[in-house]
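Residues determine shape. Next comes a sample protein:
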Amino acid sequence: MINLVVLEGLLAKPAQHRELPSGSRLLTLEVTVRRAEGPAEPVPVAWFDAPAWASALDEGSPVVVVGRVRRRFFRAGGVTQSRTEVVAERVLRATDVKRARTAMAAAGASVEAAAAALGT
């Protein structure tokens, strides 16, 4: 099975950093992805234990995100709610073209390997 997401877009708002009760650090991002047709789509991204430089990511920063889709459930106000988000394994500045291309090529290779495994 494969659960792989690659996003390329702009941050809709500055990165938000918080410390979780577990002691983990969480950086939340909202990446706006433009489509060839139709409106742009905002995608929430959760990045655990992100490096310090990531806190400086600001609105309008171009990024490439490699990660997986997660749907989590939680209770708020006595009601069960859910949220679908991307859990980032890697976030790169899209202006770092060499690293962004390498990350996207690695993601593509993962998809190719999964597709090849379907035939076996």
